[in-house]
Batch of 3 targets.
Target 1
Amino acid sequence: MAAEAGDAGLRRLPPGPGPGPDRISALPDELIQAILAWLPSTAAAARTSAVSRRWRHVWTGVPALSFHVEQKPLREYSSTDAALDAALDAYSDSAALSRLTIDVDGPSPAPRIAPWLRFASLRLAGELRLTLKGGAPKQPVMMGPLVHHPIAMGPFVHQPVLLAIGDLMQQLELPACERATRIDLAGINFALRLPPAGAFAALRILRISVTDLVRGDVGHLVSMQCPRLRDLELCGVTLEAANLSISSASLERLVLRRVSIKNEGRIDVAAPSMYYLALDNCGGRSVAVTIATAMLAELIWNHAYDPRLHKLEEADRQIYRLVATYGSNAALFRRFDAVDELCLRLSMLSKPAECKKFVREMDKLPKTKVLEVKGLSTKQHFEPVMLHLLRKHNRLVKIKVDLFPANLKEINYCLRHGCTCVPPVSWTTDDVVLDSLEEVEISSFTGAVEEVELLKLLFGCNIKIRRLAIHTASGVSLSQEMQKRIWGLARPHCISLEFETTQFSR
């Protein structure tokens, strides 16, 4: 009765003409397959085979395959590894595969994954992405360079035997993929064997990250087997080879981050077309590095720089962007006369003598138009160091500051010993003139007292800027009162003040 009462005031519509023709099924297979390729996974695309006989095999020709593999699938777009095998077996021989994405959530042995890579080597003419999130099944416990592995000797006796780690580690072979244009491999928690022969003739991007051990010669692969490679990234990997030697006429972008290489090893790169290089914590200080490129435009160097071991050959003395940790790379900064954008990751030193040397060496920084500063922590260091930088770079067009949380160790040291790192006379702003400055961006802002003091310090300089942008730290929301207070400080010196959700202008 209640339902009837609720429907009493509704106007009944006349019945429709009945179901119309199935216009979607009348579309060409190629168009339907292009639509199915946008579904969250191939498992979802395969379920459309239940629509009608017409749809039964349409999904087997989609141009992109995507699988999320779980041991016990709980989500509608997930598959088991057996279902993935069946899908690859059912894939049409006449289909053109342009993308294969496989995410494995849970431990999976290398022999289980190898057939999927072989399928890619035979069928793929495009992008391959393989991510292992659960790692490999547990290995024997490591003990230094060896492992203690019990081997059965009869029904009751277990004789401990020492075997080399390399003999016990599972190995996954990467076959030559002649038509692949991009390969991304991540989370390979066993040895990845590179092919000693075979061509990756179409490969333009190769990225390998978080891999326990890379066997084979990466340099040989890039130099001899990838004639069109433009982008190489190695992140969080261990190289079995003692050296990394690359000679490539096509390579344009190289990223090496947390690459473990033997201390007596070398990194040699000759790439005349390379314009982007990132080197971040690769081996120890004794690893020699030689980079030869005349096209270098952007350099990220978070690695101790010793001019006796580390060489940038053929590079111009003026580049577009330089990102480096200051404190251990003074010689690197002297390598360049001018940089359009200079990003300093400043690591403050605890001893007063080291801090004074640190400030003196800032005079050797290359000229720049855009200055980005990261990593300063204590108020005792932050404000005087910023002022010193502003004095030396008075032709700046833009300043970007990323405010890091205070380092308690540095604060406690200064409080115990009395901070004499930078004399108070250098805190004055009377002689700081920035008449070219147009923009200031501040990130990770929380509204803390010392951060507001930094704004006061900045506006104490002789500046007139067009734009000030303040980006708050994650989870922080500034009150309207705080925003108005900051606008009151900024208004005499800038035209526009921007927050995430509010803008002030005059």
Note: The radius of gyration is 30 Å.
Target 2
Amino acid sequence: MDGTECASYSTSTPESVFNVSCGAGGRRLRVQTRAGDVLTICEIKIFGIVGEGFG
């Protein structure tokens, strides 16, 4: 979140659904592979609350 790593995930098989919780705040979320490989995302949902200084 805004340059701070919230979570990491590693698997040898693709997952159809992956949920992660992040306690960080910010405006930008980056989703990427560690090796810089192609990442295919069909749908992503991001839930949060508007806090002070955001909106």
Note: The CA atoms of residues 16 and 42 lie 10 Å apart.
Target 3
Amino acid sequence: MPAKKSTPKTTDKTTAPDKNGNGRQPDYYIYQSEELAPDKTRLIQLGAAWNHVNGNGLSIKLDALPIRKFDGQLVAFPARER
């Protein structure tokens, strides 16, 4: 019987502790944009970000580091309600 392939963890379960130690869902997901062809680009999810409670700034957690064709830029998109 062939070996079962493991599935990678998704960031849907990524949480950040609030000041009471409870987890919060991300406010943003962090991506690297990779150009595959002149007219084709893909986004690679690298982590998540949370708004600070006081409204100033973000906390960012990267699950992976961008290394392939990295131009120094990351993009953040709001997390959608699921």
Note: Residues 24-78 form one domain.
